[in-house]
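Predict structure. Chain length: 108.
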Amino acid sequence: MEPEIIDISAETSKRKNDDIQGDNAVLQKFTTTFEHDIIKDVIKTQCTNPKNKITDEAVELVSEIAKALVVEASLRAAKVASNENRTLVTLEDIEGTLPQLVTVDFFI
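Prediction complete.
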């Protein structure tokens, strides 16, 4: 008797799509902002040439990337807590997401 082959790709794809739609709904509720002056100052600390200029578009992009990282870390930490049947996200949950975020796998 041959083992039954079950195609779970459609179910997995549906589950991933549901997760993405759920995350997008949550993302729309976030009002996280970063002060552009602070971001500009942080970027300037890394510029050794005083002639370097930082455009508003560059500051805005860095701000959006920072927001994406904060939101992604929050969502991942919340999922960890939820998977463990907890309603409180701890510092350890957020710290646990950092190695994943270093690879920036959510941009792929």
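Summary: The mean pLDDT is 77.
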